[in-house]
Every structure is written in structure tokens, then in C-alpha cells.
Amino acid sequence: MLRSRSEGEFREFGGRLQESRRPHPCRRVFRWSKNNRKAVLYAAGVTAVLVGLYFVPSGYLAVYPGPVKPMQEMVSVEGHPASSGRLYMVLVMVKETNLYEALYAAISPRAALWRKEAILGGLSLEEYSEKARQEMEESQRLAVELALEMSGYPVTPGEESPLKVTLDTGDIGGPSAGLMFFLEISSRLKPDELKPTGKVAGTGILRPDGSVAAVGGIEQKTMAARAAGIQYFIVPWQNELSARKYAGTMKILPVRDCSEALQALREVSGE
After folding, report:
1. How many other C-beta atoms can be found within 10 angstroms of the C-beta atom of residue 108?
2. pLDDT tens for each residue of 203-247
3. What pLDDT band is residue 58 in, cutting at 50, 70 and 90?
4. Cα torsion angle, 221, 237, 138, 115, sign
5. Domain locations in the chain as residue ranges
6. Residue 262: CB partners within 8 Å, gap ≥ 6?
7. Which of 39, 47, 68, 155 makes a 20 to 30 Å CA pair with 126?
8. E strands, 71-183, in order
């Protein structure tokens, strides 16, 4: 016998009425299948790898375009105020990376990867920072001596400067700003001759004989200069080709020594 009622169905079995049970229409039964377990284990493995990338040092330093700073804020020459305010220093930002950051830098068009060991040369970060500070001091000393000497002031290495020049770069380190210190001081001493009509940035390591040596991170420095609206970028001749790849409409001015750097500044002062 089959009888129905609104609350459910009743069937007669052995003289007894039993209510049949149906799953609730909103209820779903989850079965922990073999495929489910594989998917969860795979997701957990991927998550573990991604998390691990943040904590494992890569052994590389990532180099990015840095700030562009006006030279007039860092240089003071007794009796010679800033003449143009159009000379700039270009910096890069260097960061230790974990594996995740190194992978990101490897595919970023704005970044470069340097092997930490090749840059530090076995030094600790503290020791390398001290080395960079000393290199900055030496670049400043050379810049002052060369600028004064080439402007007609009597200079004797190791003796007191005939003109008080103060350079303040804060915590910036390294030797690559030497060329721009030289040009900023020279522009103070010869304001009528060295007064650029556009924004001029530059980079280069000074040598005691007045030559200009190549710098690292030229690609990132060129990007930074271009983004800052620099019109002329003075670079060591060895870095010219790399700089031109990222210059866009910015004019690259390669130089071999301080004399060529002064001539390049004169040319953009007359435009």
C-alpha cells in the first residue's frame, strides 16, 4: 500500500508504516576523494614555496633608479653663490634581495641584479658602507683640487685649500659623484662661462690625473635622469652606449676627462 502526506511519504513494510528519508535539497555531501587530497597537497606545497621565497637570501643585490638631487644644495664655495641651479647628481638604490625579490628584479625592465659577493668583495655590509664613505670623501677632495687648479687657483695636494669649499652629501656614499662635484664647483668659479640653459645631470669617477672613469648602474641612472626631465646627461665615454639605450630624447654627452666635461658644459651653456 502506498500513501502520501504533505510532510513526506509513508510506505508499508511488514505491517508498519515507515517514513522515507530524503536528503535536504540544500545539503551537499563532501566526499574526500583522492583528487581532492592531491589538490590540497599541491596548493599547500605551492604556498610553502612562495612563503619560503621571502625568507631565503638570494645572494644578489637589486639595483633600481634612484633620486636626482640638485648639486647647489650640497656645495658651498666661499664668496661664490650658486649660479645656475641646473646641475644634478643621479643616484641608484641598491637593495639586498630574497629569492622572491630577485625573481621580480630579474624580469623588471627597470632593475639590474648584481652578485652580492662580487660587489662586497668579502666585506660585511658595515665594512662596505665605510669603504663607500671613504670613496665619497676621496672623490670630493679630488673634485675640489681639480676644480680650483683648472680655474687658476694655486693648489698643493695635502695642503689647505686656498678657497673654502664645503660639500655635504649626508649618507650618500661611493665615488661616482666626483664629476658632478667638479662641475658644480667650476660653475661657481666661472659663472659667466658655465651657466647651462637646461637641466644637466652627470656621473663619473674622477682620477688624480683628471680622467673620468666608468660607473656601475648607468642604465638605472639614465632612467632616473630621463624620468626627472633632465635634458643633458654627462657620462664617462665607456658608459655612452649603455646610456643611449635608455636616454630617449635626452642628450648624452660622453667625456674622457675633466677638460671635456667643462667643454660639454660650455656647449650647453651657449644653447
Report:
1. 12
2. 999 999 999 999 999 999 999 999 999 999 999 999 999 999 999
3. confident
4. positive
5. 67-91+128-269
6. 150, 183, 186, 194
7. 68
8. 75-77, 87-98, 112-115, 165-167
User: Who contacts 167 (Cβ-Cβ below 8 Å, separation ≥6)?
Assistant: 74, 75, 76, 140, 143, 144, 181
Exposed, middle or buried, 49 (CB in 10 Å: 0-12/13-18/19+)?
Answer: exposed
Q: Which three cell numbers stand for residue 18?
A: 515507515
For residues 177 and 139, is the Cβ–Cβ distance under 8 A? yes
CA 84, 86, 89, 95 torsion-angle sign: positive
Q: How far apart are CA 109 and CA 126, in angstroms?
A: 30
- If one looks up domain 67-91+128-269 in CATH, what number appears? 3.30.230.10
What is the 3-class SS of 244-268, one letter each residue? HHCCCCCEEEEECEHHHHHHHHHHH
pTM metric for this prediction = 0.80
Strand-pairing partners, residue 95, are 62
Give helix 34-55 / helix 99-107 axis angle, nearest 10°. 90
Q: Percentage of the chain with pLDDT > 90? A: 61
pLDDT, tens only, 87-102: 999 999 999 999 889 9
Q: How far apart are CA 218 and CA 208, in angstroms?
A: 22
Q: What gap in Å lies between CA 187 and CA 147, rounded to an integer? A: 9
Alpha-carbon torsion, ordered 145, 147, 152, 156, to 10 deg: 0
CA distance 105 to 92: 14
Give the DSSP H or E segment for 218: helix 218-227
